[in-house]
Amino acid sequence: MKAIIVDDEPKAIELLSNYIQLWGKIELTGTFRNGLKALEYLRQNQVDVILLDINMPHLSGMELAKLLPPTTRVIFTTAYSEFAVESYRVEAVDYLLKPITLDRFIAAMNKLGNQMQTHEASEILWIKSGTRTYQVSAEAIVYLEKDGNYMVYHTGHEKILARESIAEALDRLPDHFIQIHKSYIINLHRVIYWTKDEIKIPDATLPVSASYRTAVEAHFIKNL
Q1: How far is CA 66 from CA 70, 92, 205, in A?
Q2: Which of 36, 127, 183, 194 has the least C-beta neighbours within 10 A?
Q3: What is the pLDDT of residues 82-112, one digit of tens each?
Q4: What dotted CATH number matches 2-121?
């Protein structure tokens, strides 16, 4: 599980970094002292959770949270209790009031873990490949590729071949999978960046064909 910390107070970043190291179940991939720098990083990198201060200059934590993809969890950290109600409107995992104790941090981490396990369990696919049937979390699937009569499921660490059409694959995939080309379906939750001609996902850059460009652009523009 990957995380970043966004807080304009160096001491708060130091404390949370120490807590993450003690917890040992999260990889801290970056720390940022303003929301704009964090947003720039997130456009090129995926994380599972952000420990996010609310009251920051230029771009507040609330504003940043509203720009995040739905798969990125937020744990707000703030010295101001009046933001609590608004934090739940953006479906934050938790709201930690400074000064943050280790016990309170651990409680938030346990809550995060429970939420992620529940989400993963709700989107399990059974993929038949020859004589084998694989159990795969939908979130593990980065993209699908048409190869003759087969669909190739790319999960990042393996490829699973299933004898099915693109239409059959789309029919059983969650709504956050869309077709971008006659040969490709992508998991929108794994997109790093997009242009009108291509979409970057982990370990691949895939073309967007002209016949799908309008629908793809409409989706991303809607979610900006």
Answers
A1: 9, 11, 26
A2: 36
A3: 665 565 566 789 999 999 999 999 999 999 9
A4: 3.40.50.2300
Coarse DSSP helix, strand, coil percentages of the chain, rounded to the nearest 5 percent:
35, 30, 30
| Coil vs helix vs strand at 143 | strand
- The residue behind tokens 């995939």 is 173
**Closest C-alpha among 94, 127, 97 to residue 113:** 94
Site of tokens 């599980």: 1
Give the lowest-confidence range in 10-19, 110-119, 192-201: 110-119
Q: Residue 113 corresponds to which amino acid? A: G
- Would you give the end-to-end CA distance of the chain in angstroms? 25
179, 172 Cβ separation under 8 angstroms:
no
Domain with CATH 3.40.50.2300 in the chain: 2-121
Model confidence pLDDT, tens digit, residues 41-92: 998 888 989 999 998 988 999 999 988 877 789 999 988 776 655 655 667 8
Q: 124-222: what fold?
A: OB fold (Dihydrolipoamide Acetyltransferase, E2P) (2.40.50)
Indicate the pLDDT class of residue 167, thresholds 50, 70 and 90.
Answer: very high
| Confidence (pLDDT) at 119 | 61
CB-based contacts of 116, cutoff 8 Å, min separation 6: 1, 48, 73
Where do the CATH 2.40.50.1020 domains begin and end in the chain?
124-222
In the chain, where does DSSP find H-type helix?
A: 10-23, 35-42, 61-65, 84-89, 102-122, 166-172, 210-222
